[in-house]
Amino acid sequence: MSGDDDSGGWHLTESDPAVFTQLLKTLGTPFIVDDLHSLEPDALSELQPIHAFIFLFKCLPLAPEEPRGLAGEYDPDFTGFFAHQTANNACATLAVINALGNIPSLKSDSRLADLLNFTTGMDPQTCGMAIVSADWLREAHNDLSPPSTISLDGLGLPNKTEDAYHFVVYLPVLGCVYELDGLKPHPVRHGTFEDSDNGWLRKAREVIENRIATYPPSAIEFSLLAVRDDPLPAMNRQLELLQQSGNDTKAAEMLLKISNETSRREQWAFENSLRRHNHIGLAHAALLALEKAELLQPAIEDARRAMRERVEQRRRNGFTGMDED
User: Fold this and answer.
1) Any idea which residues carry the catalytic annotation?
2) 142 in a domain, yes or no?
3) What average pLDDT does this structure show over 262-272?
4) Number of domains in the chain
5) What does the alpha-carbon distance between residue 62 and residue 76 come to, in Å, rounded to a whole number?
6) Which contacts (CB < 8 Å, 24+ apart) does range 107-111 have?
7) Which residues are registered as beta bridge partners of 179?
8) Co-location of 42 and 59 in the same domain
9) Residue range(s) defining the domain that contains residue 306
10) Which residue among 71, 140, 303, 325 is least enclosed by CB atoms within 10 Å?
11) Does the CA dihedral 66-39-219-58 come out positive or negative?
């Protein structure tokens, strides 16, 4: 959740698979994160096995309470791992840790294993404080979310309340689908699911879709990510078997899949390198060049005109709170 106070040195994080996958790799896990644009069974089957969903949503503090049947029920006797969020902006990494702490087959580096072992038996608040106090974890979190290098302090600008967004995780634990939200006092149990490979996914889909249905029909301020096994090792093993068996056609198909997945990782690496870079100097040089060519003022007017059109379009669609400047 975003905010200027009580951040404890934790920076805002993008809801992007490249960012979350890099965090999971830094933690030494065999998982990646993929964007989900649909919860239909066919879309989910391509990503199996899925261990958890990370859900980003816009906080609506003035919205009416969710009906009891949609909100699940608190489980104060939850025996799995659960930590509270004790620092602003840490909710993305906290969602990841809350998920990883409840995956029985987890293999990770020694630092994460030591942290999870250290917090065993702690209450959620103390556990959350231990997590945000881990310097190495905060550095991993901040690696792809650098702080802003532009300060607006002292300009006399009016204070505006920014929209707040928050990450939570949905996953199966002991035969039930749970929602782990670091801002809630306890894990939320959303009921049992059928004992099958896709049983928990069907239940989670129902819960998430009901959650989205509590927002206005035109709302799009959501993001859903799936934590799943990294497919590359299995693909490489399958390719080796196909080559050994002399099945050249299937081997060629698998080689194409590996190439596509590798290209995607290279794109993620490029995007992450851009996130680490400070672009202020480039932007400053571009503005100077536009001014020298007497193109800066026309560009400003074009931008203002485009912004007015966007604001008007959002107002026609029922959105409010967006300024033209």
Assistant:
1) 91, 166
2) yes
3) 93
4) 3
5) 26
6) 107/28, 107/29, 107/30, 108/27, 108/28, 108/29, 109/27, 109/28, 110/28, 111/27, 111/28, 111/136, 111/137
7) 170, 188
8) yes
9) 280-316
10) 325
11) positive
| CATH number for the domain harbouring residue 190 | 3.40.532.10
Let me know whether 188 and 246 are in one domain.
no
Whether 67 and 124 share a structural domain: yes
Asked whether residue 185 falls in the same domain as residue 223, the answer is yes
Token code pair at residue 216 = 């206005």
Among 105, 112, 106, 85, which residue's Cα sits nearest to residue 2? 85
Contacts of 184 (CB under 8 A, 6+ apart): 74
Q: What phi, psi does 140 have (nearest 5°)?
A: -65, -40
Name the residue with tokens 């707040």. Answer: 164
Query: Rounded to an integer, what distance in angstroms lies between the CA atom of residue 207 and that of residue 48?
Result: 19
Residue 145 is given by DSSP the state: S
Same domain, 246 and 167: no
- 269 and 255 housed in the same domain: yes
Better-predicted residue by pLDDT, 272 or 74: 74
C-alpha distances in Å from residue 294, one per residue of 281, 282, 289, 291, 306: 20, 18, 9, 5, 20
Of how many residues is the chain composed?
325
